[in-house]
What does this fold into?
Amino acid sequence: MQPRNMSMSGVVDLAAVKAAQEAKAKAEQARAEAARQGGGPGAVSPADLVIDVDEAGFERDVLQRSTEVPVVIDFWAEWCEPCKQLSPVLEQLVVEYNGRLLLAKIDVDANQMLMQQFGVQGIPAVFAVVAGQALPLFQGAAGKEQIQQTLDQLVQVAEQRFGLTGLTVDPDAAPGAAKDAGPAVPAGPYDALLEAAVQALDAGDFGGAVQAYKNVLSDDPGNTEAKLGLAQAELLHRVQGLDPQQVRQDAAAKPADVQAQVAAADLDLVGGHVEDAFGRLIETVQRTAGDDRNAVRVRLLELFEVVGPDDPRVIAAAGRSRGRCSDRGEASVLSSR
It folds into this structure.
C-alpha cells in the first residue's frame, strides 16, 4: 500500500488555531510556575521517547504530552506485516529527533475505541497529536526518507505555530520521566467559558461558539485566546451551509463581485488553501474602491487573525499588499479599518 497524505501543508491552519494559542499560553504558564518553584520536569531518558499507549492512558500519555511535544501515533497490530516494517523505522527516527517528537504505539486489537475515534481504516496508520489536535500523516508503509520529510514538517509546524520546542533528553536519565507532565497550570477565570466555546465548535454549533467567545470578550476584551477563537468560529459560521461549487462558479464568473470573492476566500481558508485565500482578497482590493474595498480589507484582516500574525504566509501576504499599494500610490490593505 502506498503512503498517503505525506504532507503537513494546510492541515493545522484552521482546526488547531485555538489549540495552538492555548498550548503556547499553558506552556508559558508552566515554565513560569516551574521557575517559581525552583525547577521543572527533568530531562527524559531516550527510552521515554517511544511508549506503548492504551485507552486508559491516552489522555495522560498523548493529549497532555502533546502540549509540550508533538506526539506521533503508530497504529499497529501483531499480525500486520507492513507494521513490522514501518514501526522500527519510526522508532529509530523519533530517537534521532532527540526529544523533538514522542512516538506512541497503539495496538488496534486491544484499543478498538481509539482506532474508531481516529477514523483508522487500515494499518499501519500514522497520525500526530499537536496541542491536543489530531493530524493525519500517512497510511501504509513508507521509506525512511519520505517519513523523515513528513516529520521535519511536523516539527516545524509544532515549533512555529504552536510554540512547542520539545523535551530535553539525557542519556543518563532514569526511564519513566516522560510520565511526569510537568507542573499543573492554574485554571484561568474564563476556562469554563472557553471550554464551552470549544465544545460548541466540536458539536458544529458555530453560532453558540461565537456567542461563548463574545461572552469572554465582553468581560476581558484583551483575551487573546477568545479573540482567535472568535475569528475561527465566525469563519466556520459563515461557510456553514454554503454550496462550494456554486460559490466557486460565482467567484470565477464575477471577479469584481465583493461578496462572491470573500465567500470564495473563506472556503479557500477552511480548505487549507491559505495563500489562495489571501491572494484572492488582495487582488479584489486592487479591483474595488470605497466601501467595497473597505469590506474586503476587513475580511483580509479577519483571515490574517485566524491564521495568526506570526505565520509566514500572513507576513508574506501583508508585505505583498503593501508593495502593490505602494506601487499604485494607494493606502495599504493593512491600513486601519
Q: What stands out?
A: The longest strand covers residues 133-139. Residues 1-20, 180-186, 331-337 have pLDDT under 50 and may be disordered. The first helix runs from residue 17 to 36.
